[in-house]
Every structure is written in structure tokens, then in C-alpha cells.
């Protein structure tokens, strides 16, 4: 039984959650924040949340919705206005056309992913996920009765799934390939050519659907052009679900609005799941999200340039730190740091570091920097550092990390 579940007399946890913990990312972040509240000097680089505020125009749209009295239930999987905004976003930014009944809106992209798996997975169905991957994927798949098939990527391949590895992982039980680009935690991004090669493999396996998690679409660097599978492989359109949301690009994590677009039958099945869980997303949040999607992208691009400046600083600092290496990410706002060079070294207290978990504990205990071990993301020995915070904080954190590494023997 999961040790994190407090057992009262007569309580019995359902088997579907008995092996699942609360997100390790949240646990580490909460622990670090608790240390801060106790007066300890801690820098928290664990959470995937932009430090920017929600743009003013979006706030105004929400306030206007409240003043108009738009505070009632909407259609259970998204208001017409919100779906129209999603429709226009896909056509204007991605060249994709969807009917309104091919679009769904939920309380965050996480709910869209959950709804899709709950609506489609039978016990034992397999979902292929490339490691490193966002920790939630495997847990959601497990809750929905599926089995996560982890395919480990390499730095040599840019932390990207290769066509050969995908082909080798597919079995008669494979139901989905889940692809995240740009990626949390590695920052790896797939261009149109890479997506086309993966699509060619899927074409040979008509039972395999593709879920594209595009939540970091607008956080892409070095003038790279974003590509999404439905755009690259229209011949697979009848088995692609494209997932996105407003949390990352528009700094709207707390508004809880995500959306998806795909085949009508899938969207209808997902609506059934949502109807018996949360029902509609917040009406006010939908009004704000619609304004975000229909508004100009100027502030999004400006913030992306700031993220790129932070990325460049962090990578430069880390690669000059003894024992660390770091590939330059193409997108998102994370550095996935190779700490293999620290393993086997001893702390000033004589404790030998044998894993990335040890490294992360050492950084928190010795210099007060909280990062997330790569073990949580399915690929070790690494740690994920979020640079979605100010330049001053990042400079301080990198100096602390360098100091901690220098103390190892």
C-alpha cells in the first residue's frame, strides 16, 4: 500500500492508486517552500510555472465576464466562444481546421490528457512514452488501466524518439504514442522532418493513435519553426489528438484551461468522461483564455526572448561547473542537467553520491537549491532545473550549485 496514504480504521485505498504517489515535483517544491517559510535560505527551481504575471488584457476580459454575469455553467466541454477561439487559433497559427464538435475544453491540458486515456484505454493497453517524460503521464496512464512503455532517448539523439526505437516498441497492444514537443523536462523539440519520420512508422500500424502535447508551443528558441503532427501528417488526422492550453505561454497556470482537438468520436467520448468528473471548466477562466488565444502574440514572443536569455545564461554557467554537463534545450523553460560526473564523489560529511537523487538532496541540504532528479522523469542521472524565474535568482542558484560541486571530493 502507498505509504503516503494515511490509513484510518476501515479505510481501503483503491488498487488503481495504491502504487501512485503525489507528483514528486510538487513534493520537492512543497518541501523546499516549507524550508523557506521556516526562514531557511532556499532557491526553488522545481516548478514548471512562469514567473511572469497574466497579461493585463486577459485579466480585463475576465473582469468583464464577471461584470456581464457570465458566471454560470457553460457547455460541459467548453463554451461556444471558447471553442471558436480555439478554432481560430489552430487555423491562424497551425493551418489546421477543426469543426466545433472536434474541439474540447477542460480544466487544464492535464485534464484533456486524462479524459482521452480514460475514454480509450482498456486494461493492459500500451502507451509509448519517450523518456525523459513529464511525471504525470505514467501515473495517468496507470490510473486509466493502461501500461506505460518507456523508450529511453539519448543526448546523442537530442532526447528525441527515433523512428527505429518507435518501431521496436510497438506491439499488438499499443494504443497510443504520446509525444511532447517542446519537451518537459529536456526542452527537446521535433521539427517537421523528425515528425514526418515518426508518422511514417505509425502509418504502418493503424491501431496506434498519436497524442501531441503542444503545451510549450510558443516557448521555442533560436527562430525555430514550430511543427505539430497533425500539420505534418494530415493522412493520420483521424487518429491524432492535439493537446494545448494557455498555462505556459500566457502565464495562466492558475486559470486552469486546456484544450484538445481531434476526431469527433474521440472528442464525444472525452466529453462523457468530463461530464461525470468536473463538468465544464470555469466560465470566467474560459472568457480569459479566449481573449488570450484571440489576442496578439507580441507579449508571448517578448517573454520567449527573455526565457531564451535565461536559457543561455544557465547553460553557460552549468557547463563550466565541475562534474556537470548540459545540452542546450530548443524550447520550454528547463535545463536537463547531466550529473554523471558527480557520482562517486563524497560530500564534506563523507556521504558518497550514488544517484541523481543523492545529488539533488545534496544541493538542497548544502546550498539550498531545490531541483528535481531525473529519475522522476524516467532517465538518470540528470536533474531538471527550471529557469522560469528571474535572472538574479538564476545567477545566485548557479553560483550555489558551482560552490556545492567544488566541495565534493
Can you describe what's shown?
The chain has a 7-stranded mixed β-sheet, with helices on both faces. A 4-stranded antiparallel β-sheet has the order 9-10-13-12. The protein has helices at residues 24-37, 56-68, 80-94, 109-120, 135-143, 163-169, 192-203, 229-232, 264-275, 283-294, 298-319, 356-367, 391-406; strands spanning 43-44, 103-106, 126-131, 147-152, 174-180, 209-213, 240-245, 258-261, 325-326, 334-338, 369-370, 372-373, 382-386. The model has no long low-confidence stretch (mean pLDDT 95). The protein has 2 domains: 16-53 and 299-404, Aspartate Aminotransferase, domain 1, CATH 3.90.1150.10; 57-294, 3-Layer(aba) Sandwich (Aspartate Aminotransferase, domain 2), CATH 3.40.640.10. It has 409 residues and is an alpha/beta fold. Helix 2 packs across helix 10 (283-294). Strand 12 (372-373) and strand 13 (382-386) form a beta hairpin.
How would you summarize this macromolecular structure in one to three sentences?
This protein has 409 residues and is an alpha/beta fold.
Q: By helix and strand content, what is the structural category?
A: alpha/beta
Oligomer: single chain
Give the strand order, joined by hyphens, for the main sheet.
2-8-7-6-5-3-4
Quickly count the domains: 2
CATH-derived topology of the largest domain: Aspartate Aminotransferase, domain 2
Query: What is the CATH superfamily of the largest domain?
Result: Type I PLP-dependent aspartate aminotransferase-like (Major domain)
What global shape is seen?
Answer: globular
How many beta-strand runs?
A: 13
Mean of residue pLDDT? 95
CATH architecture verdict of the largest domain: 3-Layer(aba) Sandwich
CATH class of the largest domain: Alpha Beta
**Over all CA atoms, what is the radius of gyration?**
21 Å
Helix content class: 25-40%
C-alpha end-to-end distance: 39 Å
The portion of residues forming beta strands comes to 5-15%
The major beta sheet can be summarized as:
7 strands, mixed
- Uncertain runs: none
String of helices and strands:
HEHHEHEHEHEHEHEEHHHEEHEEEH
**Alpha plus pi helix count:** 13
